[in-house]
From TrEMBL:
Keywords: Signal. It comes from Aspergillus bertholletiae. This is Chitin-binding type-1 domain-containing protein. Residues 1-22 form the signal peptide.
């Protein structure tokens, strides 16, 4: 989103080591989160401002070793700094600049712009619509100097003309201990069973068992165990949409926008 700035590998390592030495893991609140991609990059394409070890091309799957590109105001983070965003369950790396983020930062507002993709084609109106769909109304938390063992969803946000809104997590925990202990999942509520297929876990909609990650199956259009639990608040039971835990009847919680 701006002219390229060259960083040598030695410089990259020095930056990362310096950042790690001077900061400890913390959870920062109040970030506006938006999304950008090939179509609305300036100029259009996948070019980015900083080479953080994989060239001047945006990308990444969101793992600690392959963080997803994000843009923000110069000075808001160190160049090539890695953060973790529970809203996506992805690690991100500061690799680009953002004009609106810079204006917001000058006004005292925190703002990051996250790469949506694709890297080799425009995406057009479908991409722009996807960015709007992914953008949350509420401010989000950012974990700085995160441990490398947090839960990660490597699923794409946009691919082959399809927007993957199932790869966002609308009700993450805000507890620092959840993320800075180095061993806890970033998601809140729901089942404690490990889910290997994000977007197809307990509470997700389904048409048959093949739509659900193990160990769940499809019951009445919802991935679950099939165990019937009484519901005291009709219309707020398992499988109904939600924005937070208060929208769900006990014993369910809001997981990825669905009571589960």
């Amino acid at each position: 989103m701006s002219s390229s700035i060259s960083l040598t590998k030695a410089g990259i390592l020095a930056t990362l080591v310096s950042a790690a030495a001077s900061a400890s893991c913390s959870v920062e609140t109040g970030y506006e989160v938006t999304f950008y991609g090939y179509a609305d990059n300036d100029p259009p394409g996948a070019d980015i401002a900083y080479d953080c070890g994989r060239g001047y091309t945006a990308g990444g799957t969101g793992t600690y070793d392959d963080p997803l590109t994000f843009a923000t105001a110069p000075g808001e983070f160190s160049k090539c700094e890695v953060i973790y965003v529970p809203y996506l369950e992805k690690y991100l790396r500061f690799e680009d600049t953002c004009e609106e983020c810079t204006s917001d930062y000058d006004d005292g507002k925190l703002h990051i712009d996250i790469w949506t993709g694709p890297t080799t084609s425009n995406g057009g109106s479908k991409l722009l619509s996807c960015e709007d769909s992914l953008t949350p109304d509420a401010s989000q938390i950012v974990v700085t100097s995160p441990p490398d063992s947090l839960t990660v969803n490597t699923g794409a946000l946009f691919s082959s003309g399809t927007c993957h809104t199932s790869n966002i997590y609308k009700s993450p925990s805000t507890s620092e201990s959840t993320y800075c202990s180095g061993s806890s999942s970033g998601s809140s509520g729901g089942s404690s069973t490990t889910c290997a297929w994000p977007g197809h876990c307990e509470g997700a909609t389904c048409s048959d068992d093949n739509d659900c990650s193990d160990p769940w199956a499809c019951y009445n259009g919802i991935c679950g165990t099939g165990v019937v639990t009484s519901c005291a608040w009709e219309g707020h039971c398992a499988g109904t949409s939600c924005s937070n835990n208060n929208d769900c009847s006990d014993p369910w919680s809001c997981v990825n926008g669905v009571c589960a």
